[in-house]
Amino acid sequence: MDIEGYLDRRFQPVGEAFLEGFAAGRDVGAAVCVILDGEVVVDLWHGHADRRRQQPWRRDTLVCMFSVTKAMTTLCILQAVDRGLLDLDAPLATYWPEFAQNGKETITLRQVLCHQAGLVGFHEPVERDLLYRWDDTIAALEAEYPWWEPGTRHGYHARTFGFLLGEVLRRRTGRTIGEWFREEVAKPLELDFAIGLPDEDLARCAEILPARMRPGDLSRLPPAAQEMMRDYTNLATPTGAAFQNPALGAGYANSREFRQAEIPAANGHGTARAVATMYDRLGSLLSADVLQAATKTHSIGPDEVLKSVTHFGLGFMLHHDETPVGVRHGAFGHAGAGGSLAFHDPEAGLSFCFAMNQMDLGVISGG
Q1: 45: part of which helix (H) or strand (E)?
Q2: Which of 13, 20, 74, 336 has the most CB within a 10 Å radius?
Q3: Distance between CA 83 and CA 184 in Å, rounded?
Q4: C-alpha span between 309 and 216 (Å, rounded)
């Protein structure tokens, strides 16, 4: 197979593993980047950006990485904490007074970052396009009540994570997550990644292809994943509320309204190179104290939404044998629905990102 980009000879097995996904029929288009001690050692792309396989995946192809975006949103919040603009242990209502109702008065920024706030989704059905309307989503969250007592359990805030954090940042600084990321991270580091795409970038987007469902697929998933899938469409459960209220409809990830909205938990678009670079440069973006606090355990154990054991710091997923991020303990990052993954391994000095357009079943973390 032809492959484009750069591959250090020491990392030949990475290139072989990357191409194996295409040979096995799992991937249509994808990119992978590895940075070791500040040096790019792998930067590859291959395949096609569309389902008809007419548009080649290019060096600057953008792809939605779903929940990989949560790390970008986390970085924005942690930068604001670093600068004294936000307090991790202050109630959200300190910055957002309308939030203080229906049992949410004491929910803190820290609890949102480590998925303990209990606001995984809405109890009542909401309109399909709600998440594209920021102010209406915020009003719905103000009226919502927690699914459990905040701070007592944790469960993956698949979509609400970004709205909760984004509104706090907007109230305190006047800037949205998308604006802060563009001005404080993407521009200084020249990263090709955005939360809310401008018109001129839409033509570079890869088409997202939904996971293929084959007979017996669900029965082959681990028991925790099977339990999650059983609850997935039940809006009366935390899982169903988190992922399917609202149900965005077929092909939503390829729509202009999705790509241009700011959904800071789930719709960041970019290149694998950009994300790996962000992880490699975290030390220049955050103080050592804040980064250390963000990558220590805050939540670990059974997840009320994902059903498996999950392990979170402040906004970052931390490695756990049941839900691995990286290959060993100490690694941190975030996975995205369907198979995208990015992480940093501080012991190895390695930053990694894989991004693709053909989604797969049974992959940790939802978009």
Answers
A1: strand 39-47
A2: 336
A3: 12
A4: 24
Residue owning tokens 């930067």:
43
Both structure tokens of 101: 């109702």
Report the pLDDT averaged over residues 97-122: 98
Question: Please, which pLDDT band fits residue 362 given cuts at 50, 70 and 90?
Answer: low
* Contact status, residue 161 vs residue 109, Cβ threshold 8 Å: no
Residues 230 and 240: their CA atoms lie apart, in Å, by 9
pLDDT for position 329? 94
| Active site members | 67
Are the C-beta atoms of 155 and 148 separated by less than 8 Å? yes
pTM for the full predicted model: 0.96
CA 4 to chain centre: 26
- Joined tokens for residue 153: 């359990």
Tokens 């480590």 correspond to what residue? 114
Question: Which tokens sit at 241?
Answer: 């509320």
Strand, coil or helix: 99: helix
First to last CA, the chain: 31
How would you label 24-34 residue by residue, b for 16+ Cβ within 10 Å and e otherwise? eeebbbbbbbb
CB 334 within 8 A of CB 161: no
8 Å CB contact between 351 and 277: yes
- Asked if residue 330 lies in contact with residue 300, where contact means CB atoms within 8 angstroms, the answer is no
Strand partners, 344: 332, 351
The Cα–Cα gap between 110 and 88 comes to 5
3-class SS of residue 331: coil
Of 286, 335, 285, nearest in space to 312 by CA: 335
Give 365's pLDDT tier (boundaries 50, 70, 90).
Answer: very low
Residue 5 pairs with which residues in a beta bridge? 44
Question: Using CA atoms, how far apart are residues 74 and 88, in angstroms rounded to an integer?
Answer: 12
Measure the CA angle with vertex 7, ends 6 and 9; round to 5°.
145
Distance CA(366)–CA(6), nearest Å, equals 30
How many Å apart are CA 248 and CA 268, to the nearest integer? 16
Q: What is the DSSP letter of 320?
A: -
Contact 106, 150 (CB under 8 A): yes
